[in-house]
Please model this.
Amino acid sequence: MNRVTFKTPLAVAVAAAGLALAGTANAQSTDLEQRLAELEARIVAAEQRADAAEQRAELAEAQAEERLSSEEVEERLAKVERQASGDEGFSFGAYARSGLLIGEDGKSAPGGPGVTPAGPLGGNVGRLGNEPDTYAEAKLNYRMRFDNGAKADYRMMVADGVTTSNDWTADETNLNVRNVYAEFSDLPSFTGAFEDASIWAGKRFDRDNFDIHWMDTDFVFLAGTGAGIYDVQLADNWKSNFSLYGRSYSEFPTEESDITGDTDNLTLTANNYFGNWQWMVSGLSAADNEERDIGAGQDAADSGFHTMLAYHGDSFFGLGEGNFKAAVMHGQGLGAEVKVIGGNGSLTDEATATRVGLYGTTYLAPSWRVAPAILAETSEDRLVEGDRFDWATLNVRLANELTENFEMQYEGTYQYMDLDQGAGGNSAKGDYTKFTIAPTFKPEVGGFWKRPEIRLFASWSDWDDELNDYSADDAFGSEGFTGSQWTFGVQTEIWF
Amino acid sequence: MNRVTFKTPLAVAVAAAGLALAGTANAQSTDLEQRLAELEARIVAAEQRADAAEQRAELAEAQAEERLSSEEVEERLAKVERQASGDEGFSFGAYARSGLLIGEDGKSAPGGPGVTPAGPLGGNVGRLGNEPDTYAEAKLNYRMRFDNGAKADYRMMVADGVTTSNDWTADETNLNVRNVYAEFSDLPSFTGAFEDASIWAGKRFDRDNFDIHWMDTDFVFLAGTGAGIYDVQLADNWKSNFSLYGRSYSEFPTEESDITGDTDNLTLTANNYFGNWQWMVSGLSAADNEERDIGAGQDAADSGFHTMLAYHGDSFFGLGEGNFKAAVMHGQGLGAEVKVIGGNGSLTDEATATRVGLYGTTYLAPSWRVAPAILAETSEDRLVEGDRFDWATLNVRLANELTENFEMQYEGTYQYMDLDQGAGGNSAKGDYTKFTIAPTFKPEVGGFWKRPEIRLFASWSDWDDELNDYSADDAFGSEGFTGSQWTFGVQTEIWF
Amino acid sequence: MNRVTFKTPLAVAVAAAGLALAGTANAQSTDLEQRLAELEARIVAAEQRADAAEQRAELAEAQAEERLSSEEVEERLAKVERQASGDEGFSFGAYARSGLLIGEDGKSAPGGPGVTPAGPLGGNVGRLGNEPDTYAEAKLNYRMRFDNGAKADYRMMVADGVTTSNDWTADETNLNVRNVYAEFSDLPSFTGAFEDASIWAGKRFDRDNFDIHWMDTDFVFLAGTGAGIYDVQLADNWKSNFSLYGRSYSEFPTEESDITGDTDNLTLTANNYFGNWQWMVSGLSAADNEERDIGAGQDAADSGFHTMLAYHGDSFFGLGEGNFKAAVMHGQGLGAEVKVIGGNGSLTDEATATRVGLYGTTYLAPSWRVAPAILAETSEDRLVEGDRFDWATLNVRLANELTENFEMQYEGTYQYMDLDQGAGGNSAKGDYTKFTIAPTFKPEVGGFWKRPEIRLFASWSDWDDELNDYSADDAFGSEGFTGSQWTFGVQTEIWF
Model:
């Protein structure tokens, strides 16, 4: 730190000058002499000060020159900032949950949002205090920018889900690669309706899937291996996405005994957006799937149709701040698995299903959040001619933010189901209820979407006895799991 | 932003001084008086300006001081730039391909560059429009720099390859760890011939492997677990690499029924570089492998020899800009698997194989690229005394760059094979032809090595009927796959 | 580069002024005139210099302004530095070892620190020149900072261990997810004893585990799925950690034939720190584990107790610079597996085990490091009433740093074991000895904890013949592995 300091301050010089001007008129010569002397003194001082100012200016110049130019620093900083943020190069994303779900007997309890007999049909219930697994997705992303302005985005996702609590899970592991795709955008050759379009190919979850988080279910889950184009601007208020997804149907029984069959379902989808409205249409085809043996007298579907009309709301059903989503889906044949489109090759060619889903979130009061959700479906001739499955779930999540880091969460869930397998097996009718209280820690409270969380919980669940006998494949009716259950646990959930 | 502005500009002061000097001679005293007054005025102005300059210099100093010194910024920026680029710390690399390969029947078609009966022998054909899988390698790299100048590079690679199109592949997954090794370079203790040498140990693909990309085959693929040293400077124009690689031969049948054997193949390799020439020599040993039961009358090899002479050309065969590579390989005993050195423990002790490979790339015209390639092998006494396998593949990839983001790719591939298993099984002779057209999107066109790509494709392939009966283990002759095939699909490919 | 330079230097002006003052007294008027003229000249010069200084100050200001403010640069640099270092956002960590372990017969040799009959009981021996596997842990970490000062740390670890040397290990892979958890710290709502506390939930290795590196064994290894709180300040010199860990006991035989059982072990632990002392207490419970069939006449434990008293020393046993750790552990019932707490569900309800462990590290001379270690255990009624297992291992690692990049490492290990399975099987008594010499390369020598290393090694091992017949499940006594063995190899080891 160099700072030039002035030994002869200005005030002194000015004072001296003032005194000098106070001489008498006759002593003019002497007066002039004095005034000159004073001026000389002042000019010396002024010269010294000019020296000093010069010196300081020089120093300031030198210091300024030592600094990198802002242009260079800006450019280099901006690049490393893009890299550090993942806007360019590698970035890491994750979803994970892990914890314990323990029953009254001190042992792991069955659970999961698909725990009821309606679960295999997509009839999820609330997930809070109801999850027995460690599930983790690791997302390895890499974004490229090209000199011509084009961008490419590579995504790879590996995921694992196990229910064991052990740390070495080589025997139980389900580690697998769920996403491997590349997406290109900002292509200079794309103009007109395609100007903002991006194209992709590979294995992926479709960009336009959306879910009811509290029941851990997508409205629609379009995924598989294929290709597509997003954001084609067909008109001012009409954007469309088109995709072709393949899914594999492997080693299914055929009517020729001992010969298994393999085929692929191909789903061609158009997703149309008009303002807040989304209209999705899909056609499905699985060559030779009708050769599948799904039981005497039924023909497996080898094609299907699926459509969804959805509304993405910017408020809490128009009643207050928040958001909501509502959708109705209908499918036929292979499209009658209305969530995982093309995900079930055992559907009959007469299968039909209609589902409605909706949820909303809002603040009831400054520290009280609420999120109600409904999901319901009716399907017929699904797995066997004459079967009929009706179920409806009502779920409410409530949270009370108590400190910056703590909130009480509550969840009530109710499911009604009337499951008639026809010639395919048992029938059962009844309902399921769960109530959960979960003291929850968060680094920062403030909304339904803020994670991570660490939660303790106690859940009470009950269901009609009739449901225990419906299927040997589900948890209901298994040892010690016949209704009027308490479960306890602890869990973390994170995403970023 | 503080800027000092001057209320009394210099021009005014100077003008005042000029007027003052215009007084008369006789009024000398008055004149002097005036001049004094003027001087006084000017000195006041000069003082004010000195004040101001001082103030501004001070401000400039203060501003400059507020800036970080370029030395510090440079150092800190350079470090984060090294980290962001992966030159220091973590970096992510990938190879991936994923897509659909659909036959005329609308179902997944068999495929892959090793689809022909010669495939298991390494007789690959062109890969464009011929790949049915999702294959991805994730490379997790970590580079360390030490105060003494030494560097260490850690590499871990996980890879997965599946043919299912589904997004959840826990049942089919092949996820596994292919590389885990550390390599040290710039070791201050290394001098003389070792000055530029680096050493490594662990599981890896050898650094010196190189491939014919369009047929998805390495010229040689040396890999396994071991250790080595690279870049030993034996003479001015002679660099050598030495390595020892182990590979495991597990649970093979022995002549004692019900007792399986296990052993390891150890390959000791010297790779010598003289200018553009590479001469590779390998000795192989697998203790007790002769106890392996490979059929009556044959002895499995327990040792082997392998050599390759290669030329890495800087032009298109001397005919124009581009590059080319040419190599001839010969192996005996365990070295008779001339690509995957040590990769096949079932070779007889009399086995011999000779392979030639070459490819080149160049631009035929500003927007037309071409890459011809040839791969051919003859081997005898390979799996059974008296067997003989001859095959040769000719492949040509052509690309026409049409816009910044789009090119048409074409591939023609032809393979002749004469496969005589002797006492080991069927024999067959014939040829295979494939022609593919692939409209291809790229963020930036401009060469055979630029990725990512998204391609649509249609391939027509045909082969001699005789090949359908050669083996039950290959795709030829399986249901609906007997020649004169169309396949269609879409795929992405990326590496970085 | 703009620099204002002065054409009329100060010296000239001063000289002129000096001459002017040398006039005669009588010529006062002339003298005054002259002095005025000189003053005028000087004021002009001063004005010019003020101009110049002003100009330079302006320039310096302008240059300074062009630079980014240090506040902004500092803030942006600090953020990318945090991101690049992993202090915020993603970071990658690893542990890995990979290499070859070859016997005198040229084939892979059995090995591992648990190679002796005491190994399954936790009786490890020295690991140097004794490891046959490729084991790698990839740690994907993500740290978040919140506006309120809170931090969250997400950890995911995948690991794989195989003994094959091949590069494609899809058939042998053990790739699995060992850690998935989130930990929160600096929570503003936490005050008082909890001010510095952090909380976590998920699947993890406990933070407080510590090991004897040279024998590849933790003193205690607490791990599983659960939740806990660290660093509760109970008193000035008393910090405690509390945790609940679950571990799964799956598909064990029960006394009802054909019905397997499943339960969970729950371990509640308090870890107390007083200065260098650590006192750990754990209670274990596994509901219904007593239904496990562990052989006629024994009851499996359904609960247990475990405690450890440990000292973490800052010197080499008070004898010199370095460090040491010493601990004694005792367990009963399910706690009788004293290392992997809750890791063994087959223990009898009468099982007891007591273990001691200690190690230290120091420099004997500037380039000679030594690390002695002892681990010993006695257990009774472990797997069968009346069994008794005593074993003790003494291990010494010695290293001689010869250059910046090279050291010779030596390891001697001795294990005595007296294994009496009682009614459960064979008994054997004897000892095992191994001596290893390992020329070792490092980017930078300088301590037992510096990695990576690449080592060559030769080991000689021997043991009592009686140990060969103890168990068919261990390597002792298998073909060609009966004592007086040489093994050779090469290996890398790295962590960061």
User: Anything to note?
Assistant: Residues 1-25 of chain A have pLDDT under 50 and may be disordered. The two ends of chain A are 45 Å apart (CA to CA). The longest strand of chain A covers residues 238-253.
